[in-house]
Design a protein that fits this description.
By secondary structure, this protein is of the alpha+beta class. The chain has a domain at 14-117 and 141-147: Ribosomal protein L17 (50s Ribosomal Protein L17, Chain: A, Alpha-Beta Complex). Helix content is 52%, strand content 13%. The chain is built from six helices and four strands.
Length: 174
């Protein structure tokens, strides 16, 4: 029984699991958007949130803690210089997991991890200004973004819809 055992093992031994999560968190901070599986996105979410909280404190000790976990010095600098100040007035919930489709192969659900803006944008208003369809849910998968741009999210979801339609009609792989 798994009483009081939380988190996913990700099919790896502890050292490999830690390395996988460190790489994923570093990439989320550097690129602000990562496509991955749902399980990995859920496993990385609390760690990314913890790193942003460390960035908000911005002391020598928190810089050392973040640098010890993140894989590159550039990621540490970006965390403290760019990302943490964006969320200075926000008390958590810095990231979002959004549906992105199915991964080719064994078909695990894909995800993208993202950091949020300070305010939630009104996607319908932006879509109407840019003559885009309002965003709709795409089956399966997620994407994990940092500071998403609504037009970019809409365009991504539209491309995924078209690819899924082509795949269903012609049997073409995405």
């Amino acid at each position: 029984m798994r009483h009081r055992n939380f988190g996913s093992k990700l099919g790896r031994n502890p050292a490999h699991r830690r390395a996988t999560l460190r790489n994923l968190v570093t990439n989320v901070i550097e690129r602000e958007r990562v496509t991955t599986t749902l399980t990995r996105a859920k496993a990385a979410r609390p760690i990314v949130e913890r790193m942003i909280t460390l960035g908000k404190k911005d002391t020598l000790q928190t810089r050392r803690q973040a640098a010890a976990f993140l894989m590159t010095p550039a990621a540490t600098q970006k965390l403290f210089r760019d990302i943490a100040p964006r969320f200075s007035s926000r008390a958590g919930g810095y990231t979002r997991i959004v549906a992105a489709g199915w991964r080719v192969g064994k078909k695990p659900r894909k995800s993208r991890r993202k950091k949020l803006r300070k305010k939630k944008p009104d996607l319908k208003a932006i879509a109407s200004q840019k003559n885009l369809d309002p965003p709709r849910h795409v089956r399966g998968g997620f994407f994990f973004l940092v500071n998403p741009q609504p037009a970019l999210v809409d365009a991504f979801l539209e491309v995924r819809r078209i690819c899924h339609r082509l795949q269903g009609i012609n049997g073409i792989g995405v």
